[in-house]
Amino acid sequence: MFPSEHQTKFEKLRGHFIAGLPKREAELEELVSNLMMNGACATTLEALYFETHKLAGISGTYGLHGIGQLAEAISSQLDKRRAETLSEKHINELLVATDLLTEKLRQASARS
Questions:
Q1: Per-residue b/e over 81-90, b at no fewer than 16 CB within 10 Å?
Q2: Per-residue pLDDT band at 81 (split at 50, 70, 90)
């Protein structure tokens, strides 16, 4: 993958990323909780979009392709619906997808 002198640095960065997954999971859980309590609040949806978008972008770099793909699917759905009022059906789909994502984050964190 990398020349040997960079592999150690990459593994250290990957370890740091994985160690931060519980924090990312907690942030997502808090956003989902806000969404459940307050409905489709634009501020919460925007924060959820940015968190999933960031996860989608970096996860694949560290070999966590399943997390990256799921985060990308969530952020894409949120991006498409930015100008709309989300229906209850869309909110429920978002909650299910986010629950799957946080479970993947837990699993990746536990494996390290």
A1: beeeebeeeb
A2: confident
